[in-house]
Amino acid sequence: MARAWAKFTKEQVLQAIEDSYGIVSQVMRNLQRIARDTCEWHTAQTYIEHWAETRQAFADENERALDFSESQMLGLIRAMDGPMIRFHLTTKGKHRGYVPREERELSGKDGEPLIPKVIELVMGEETEEERRLVVGDDGEGDDSAE
To answer: How far apart are CA 64 and CA 42, in angstroms?
Structure first.
């Protein structure tokens, strides 16, 4: 019985990974072109994961793609693109305090003010209402224990 790994060689997979930007679909298309054979997405993914060398090459290609994207981002920053400057600061400048501030307004039912309930319990002297709140009794349970 022939092994499934006979369709593409490690060298073909390594060549297909080059300039794929770490995108499996691009590796798949490159394999089809290089080997002049059909290739499905899951097949390309399986071949990428099969050898340590191809796994590392794919990880390296992902990093190169990120470097490329970052260099394009820096070009936009140099061109004074405000949204890109903000994005860069909130993602890479967090350690300097550039984090988006989020404001939320809390309100009660139907927009009414939120008023916290303060319950003061003294051992043995709680009211029936306080006992129900603490114990979780809704007042409709069995009263036979009392």
So the answer is: 23
Amino acid, res. 133: L
What are the tens digits of pLDDT across the range 104-132? 887 878 888 877 777 665 566 667 776 67
25 C-beta neighbours (distance < 10 Å), count: 11
Domain ranges of the chain: 4-96
Q: Which amino acid is at 21?
A: Y
pLDDT of 86 higher than 70: yes
